[in-house]
Amino acid sequence: MPKIGVLALQGDFSEHIKMLKKCNVNVCLVKLPEDLIDVQGLIIPGGESTTIGNLMQRNGLNKEITKKHKEGMIIYGSCAGAILLAKDIIGSSQPRLNLLDISIKRNDYGRQVDSFEAQLSIEKIGKFNGIFIRAPVIEQVSNGTKVLSRLNNNPVLIQDKNILASTFHPELSNDKRIHEYFIKLTKNFL
Ligand code: GLN
Predict the structure, then answer these.
(1) 87: left (phi over 0), alpha (psi -120 to 50) or beta
(2) pTM
(3) What is the DSSP letter of 59?
(4) Exposed, middle or buried by CB within 10 Å (0-12, 13-18, 19+), for 143?
(5) Which CATH architecture is the domain 3-188 placed in?
(6) Ligand 1: which residues within 6 Å by Cβ?
(7) Which residues form the catalytic set?
(8) How far apart, in whole angstroms, are the C-alpha atoms of residue 75 and residue 43?
(9) What's the CA gap between 93 and 112, in Å, rounded?
(10) How many A from CA of 71 to the centre of ligand 1?
(11) Fewer beta carbons under 10 A from the terminal one: N or C of the chain?
């Protein structure tokens, strides 16, 4: 049974924990670098990416996450988590992990549509109700990145080798298929 950690500095980590508990895996909260021991997969939740980034930097978690990722730990970032993984956050110099070769723009769906739901079609998964909350837009991905779903032509779920990122929140839908897909990645690197 894989051990999956959820970064628990700020944001909706408890929803991810609830979802993972339904998926038959060992789950742990990650607040400090030592919490990553034996973790095969890490989820970075939605929340406020500047806050999470600053806290990660303060306690050295950013360095430990990068080190463990090089050693094989799979990472999934949802919404703010996707922003924190990106190499390029358009117009921002906020702290980040710098692991995923994408350009992403924060809060880019405009005010009136700050939050919305959309019916997505996801490769290998099928139809999925996407919940978007002050979501960022992925404007560019590198050549090696697999786009698993798009909305208005912008990628909303992507996979780059051992990193998965979504601009929506599957932990808020009553549907565990994306979490299961991530868990499968931690077992046998797809
Ligand atoms: N707007 C947030 C940010 O830029 C992300 C929102 C979310 O995670 N739901 O960090």
Answers:
(1) alpha
(2) 0.96
(3) T
(4) exposed
(5) 3-Layer(aba) Sandwich (3.40)
(6) 46-49, 79-80, 83, 106-107, 133-134, 136
(7) 79, 169, 171
(8) 6
(9) 26
(10) 28
(11) N
Among 102, 10, 110, CA closest to 56: 10
Q: Which atom of ligand 1 is nearest to the CA of 135?
A: 6
Find how far residue 109's CA is from the centre of its chain: 18
In whole angstroms, what is the distance from residue 23 CA to residue 111 CA? 35
In tens digits, what is the pLDDT along the chain, a chain of 190 residues? Answer: 899 999 999 999 999 999 999 999 999 999 999 999 999 999 999 999 999 999 999 999 999 999 999 999 999 999 999 999 999 999 999 999 999 999 999 998 876 568 999 999 999 999 999 999 999 999 999 999 999 999 999 999 999 999 999 999 999 999 999 999 999 999 875 4
| Tokens representing residue 34 in the block | 């030592």
The three state secondary structure string of 142-186 is CCCCEEEEEECCEEEEEEECCEEEECCCHHHCCCCHHHHHHHHHH
How many A from CA of 21 to the centre of ligand 1? Answer: 24
**What size, in residues, is the chain?**
190
